[in-house]
Structures are given as structure tokens and as C-alpha cells.
Amino acid sequence: MNTVENREAIVATSAQYIPLCPADALAPGEMSRFDPAGMDPIVLCNYQGDYYALEDECTHAIASMAEGEFVEDQLVCPVHGGRFCVTTGAATKLPCRQALKTWPISIVDGVVCLQID
Fold first, then answer.
1. Nearest Cα to 22, choosing from 96, 104, 109?
2. Measuring CA to CA, how many Å separate 98 from each of 18, 61, 63, 84, 108?
3. pLDDT tens profile 2-17
């Protein structure tokens, strides 16, 4: 997980940071859906203490991944049971074939932030 100690470091980069939640909001093994302004919904997963952000809509069928299960390092689609790796977004079980989009996460002043370019 990328940690930025102060806001001056953020200003020095070209990336934008969208705050999502306090860094302790999700325990390992938990996930939550977020609706960042101007973006499609994302699902934020805490896998072994590190946060991962993925698009919330299954690439196989229109379904919210946040309504599925989070098992080990896999997001399970609630419609057909397809799976995606939370660390890479890769489809790992049929019928899903196309990866979920992912975004980098940074912790800024104790807040989980979505990093966009």
C-alpha cells in the first residue's frame, strides 16, 4: 500500500486523489461500494491489510460486485459466480473473461484515497 505522509507530496504529483473512507474503516476481508463524484461506482476491498479499488460492475453481466462475496483474494459475482482477483482485477473463473478495471490506492493523512490521473 502506498502511504503519503503529507499533503505537499500530493501537490507535487500529477495524480488526483479522491478520499473514500478512514484507513481503519474496513477490516481485512471486508469490502464496500463507493460512488466517487464523476465516476462509475467502485468496490473497495481490504485484502490482508492492503486496499484495492476495482470497478463495481461485473464484466460478464450487469451486477454489483459489492453485492457478491469476498473470499480470500477473490470477488465473486452475485449473478453467475464468476470470480475476479482483487489485487489485479483479472477474471479467474468463468463465465467471466474480461478483467475488472482497477485503480491505485494511497493512504493520505489516515484516509483511503483513490488515485486517478
1. 109
2. 26, 11, 14, 9, 31
3. 434 444 444 445 569 9
Residues 105/18/89/107 CA torsion (nearest 10 deg): 10
- Residue 63 makes CB contacts below 8 A (sequence gap 6+) with 57, 77, 78, 79
Query: Which amino acid, residue 78?
Result: P
What is the model's pTM? Answer: 0.85
The three cell numbers of residue 10 are 500530493
Class of residue 78 by CB neighbours under 10 A (exposed 0-12, middle 13-18, buried 19+)? middle
49: Cα within 13 Å, side-chain hemisphere: 2
Separation between Cα atoms, residue 24 and residue 2, nearest integer Å: 15
Cell 482483487 -> residue: 86
Task: Respond yes or no on whether the N-terminal peptide bond of residue 78 is cis (omega within 30° of 0).
Answer: no
